[in-house]
Write a structure and sequence with these properties.
By secondary structure, the protein is of the alpha+beta class. Helix content is 34%, strand content 15%. The strands form 3 sheets. It has a 5-stranded mixed beta sheet with strand order 8-7-6-9-10, with helices on both faces. A 3-stranded antiparallel beta sheet has the order 3-4-5, with no helix packed on it. Strands 1-2 form a two-stranded antiparallel ribbon. It starts with a helix and ends in a 30-residue tail after the last helix.
């Protein structure tokens, strides 16, 4: 399975050093090949996301099985229990898989009917510990975010300053979903993380990922209003209805947000800006592959991991080489190191 995923052949191999495609020498004792052209020794995982792995190939395949059979995503602690991984190794393994999905995503423009919407994740402060006596001034301070005279805003909300500052981690996940045939839902999804749902970011994403002849369905957020100048734009007023009488809706975008929120609440328990783009793209992959058999899904994630090259952000994680930067508007190529 690994050989087919890497080279799509059981007889020929491609040397990762010089690129020579041949039936290279097999070194049975070391379970390696030796290149006929440059004499370099290599294995099936050389220069892949699993390069220099300590776990056996069976352990890695078991981890992939647990990953694809989790419809709402897989927690690192769950993988450490079921896959015989340490918590840190499980965290790195899941990070490499998400990176492989992000770097191998299909970014060709979406066609037909495209639904676009934004949902806010992360940055949720905890509820206050003490529920004191409320009055109109405290309620007004909480609703407007303005502090009461002589009091800090977090005091007015009954929170600590550290808890109040968690709101800075709130981000919006923009989702663009291409509708499939009738009653088959969406067929392709592209996600991007932004600081807010604004006109400039929406325009950049539409110009990059939506075909000029596509029909765009959105809600009535002012950020989408200018789309009518370049595309056939059909908004739906969510304050009055979920589906217009002519069928215009955003149900597929909401379906994605449902899976994303289930991951946040039931699996990850929080969303941080650093890896929000990775997890949003993972949920998009799970939404698009929801009807694919598990065997094909396992081959797909294995092929992506074996053909995406070295991990950019997780290779050297144990030595302190962390990405540390969030990915905004799907510009993941800017963070290559």
């Amino acid at each position: 399975m690994y050989v087919l995923a890497r080279w799509d052949s059981l007889t020929h191999q491609g040397c990762p050093a010089c690129g020579a495609w041949d039936v290279h020498y097999w070194r049975a004792r070391r379970k390696q090949w030796r290149c006929k052209a440059c004499r370099t020794d290599f294995t099936v995982t050389s220069r892949t996301a699993f390069a220099n792995h300590k776990k056996s190939l069976k352990h890695i395949l078991a981890a992939l099985f647990h990953y694809v059979t989790s419809p709402k995503g897989l927690a690192g602690l769950q993988l450490s229990r079921s896959g015989d991984y340490s918590p840190k190794a499980a965290h790195v393994t899941l990070g490499k898989l998400r990176e492989a999905l992000l770097r191998t995503q299909d970014e060709t423009p979406l066609k037909g009917i495209v639904e676009i919407d934004g949902g806010y994740f992360g940055g949720k402060p905890r509820k206050p510990n003490h529920r004191g006596r409320r009055n109109d001034r405290m309620i007004a301070a909480r609703l407007t975010g303005r502090p009461m005279p002589g009091r800090k805003p977090w005091h007015a909300a009954g929170m600590t300053q550290q808890n109040w500052d968690k709101r800075r981690n709130k981000r919006v996940v923009m989702v663009l979903r291409q509708q499939g045939p009738h009653r088959r839902g969406a067929t392709r999804t592209i996600t991007a993380v932004a600081l807010s749902e604004n006109e400039a970011d929406v325009r950049e994403l539409v110009d990059r990922y939506v075909d000029p002849d596509a029909i765009i369905w959105t809600d009535e957020n002012p950020a989408y209003t200018p789309l009518g100048m370049t595309h056939d734009h059909e908004p739906v007023n969510h304050g009055r209805m979920f589906v217009r009488s002519d069928g215009v809706n955003e149900n597929q975008a909401e379906s994605f947000f449902t899976r994303q929120r289930r991951h946040e609440l039931g699996v990850a328990h929080r969303m941080t800006p650093t890896y929000l783009a990775d997890k949003a793209n993972e949920m998009a992959w799970r939404e698009d592959s929801r009807r694919i058999p598990l065997s094909m899904l396992l081959k797909d994630i294995l092929r992506r991991a074996m053909t995406s090259g070295f991990s950019w952000w997780w290779r050297g994680y144990y030595q302190g080489h962390h990405r540390g930067s969030e990915i905004l508007l799907n510009r993941w190529r800017d963070l290559r190191r």
